[in-house]
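User:
Care to share a sequence and structure tokens?

Assistant:
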Amino acid sequence: MPSTNSRSAIYRWATAQRQLTIFAGVAAALPAAYAFRSAYGSGPGSFLLLVTLGVVVPTAYDEYWPAYDRAGAAVAWILVACAVAATAFVACYLVGTEAAGLGSTPSAAVAFLATDLGGFALLAVGRRTRA
């Protein structure tokens, strides 16, 4: 039987702000990737959207944004950032497939790079102006 100390350590780990932001990003990423796959039929696109929302957005918060005092505010930041990133990803994907005439895989790769690198660039500029 696990000791009380190990349970409290697991609870502290699971409720730490960093873990909560990761959990929120993954919770937003799964239905978004499913919806993207259902709407556009792109396997690579849905996977790259999943990575963007579940990995890149929480990493961006951790690296480029000052931690909030309350975990709820951090989770809200992640959810809003996931909505913005998903919108940017889908817009870039549609520009690639519809306007540029690229296939689904190159469009997904361009959308991934544009969304992630553009998001990191905006956050870096924002951090520089806050400092």
